[in-house]
Write a structure and sequence with these properties.
Largest sheet: 8 strands, mixed
Order of helices and strands: HHEEEHEHEHEHHHHEHEHH
Number of strands: 8
Strand content: 5-15%
Distance between the termini: 34 Å
Shape: globular
Radius of gyration: 19 Å
Number of helices: 12
Length: 314
Amino acid sequence: MRKRHLKGLLVSAIVVLLLWGASFLPRVGLWSFQTATAAIAWWYDFETRQVALGDITFSVYVRPGRDTAATPVVLLHGYTANKALWLPMAAQLDSSATIIIPDLAGHGETGFDPQWSYRASAQAQRLQRLFAALQIEQPVLVGHSMSGLIAANFALLYPQQLSALIVMNPTGVTSPTPSRAEKLLQQGRSPFLINDWQDFQELYQLSMAQPPWIPNFIQRGVAYDYRQHKAEFSQIAEDFLYHDQLDQRLSELQIPTLILWGAEDALIDVSSADVWHSAIQGSEVVVLEQVGHMPMLERPRQTADELQRFLKRY
């Protein structure tokens, strides 16, 4: 009862915070977003852990499962994102299994180091060390966008260390039909390198077909944060976009795989789903209609249901 009462007070405080912050600077919007995210993580019983591995300290959400025999689930965010991206969907997954959500190297509270490699294989190797430190054995690995590439590289490097693979709107193969974002890249313009508010608005529209409502001042705070990390994001992109690609290697994956895609994805065209599906023997593909690049934000309940249906096998 005490925690329920505290949660009620917290919700009221968040509402006041959002209304109060609306008239302030983008930094206040960013702070409000980070504060609200921390509150939501607490609400849904995700604790934040710092896992030191020598050259890197991972910041990780962990929700311990009720059933110690249940297969752990690891959720990996995409390029320029962080672990908070998963909260709306992760909160709706069955609480019997432990859920791990790390900030990847170069992102979120794990931070950036110009000396690190951000190739998919390097990120996969770091994850292997993280799993060992957390004593996570044979999880189901879920990778979104950039992390679909990372998760697939992990499965290729450590095939005996996973129970199954789920990729959502993953990068890593040549799309039969170029997306709107790919056409911009071909023109020498990355929609992810934000210079101003207009650039952020264009990326926001490209990212989701049905974006959830987010207060304008919060969006401006996130846009401000993007601008502060522009050079870092550029270095990360150079590493993961041009190395460890999968066009000639997908058929080597020998692991149960679910491929989930938003039909209206403007960043990575849904035509790539057939490339993944045809190359990975026994894989399953699910296309969500009227959904863009961010199923976990656009349709968190439906996305969780699709994942849960697949996860019940493991």
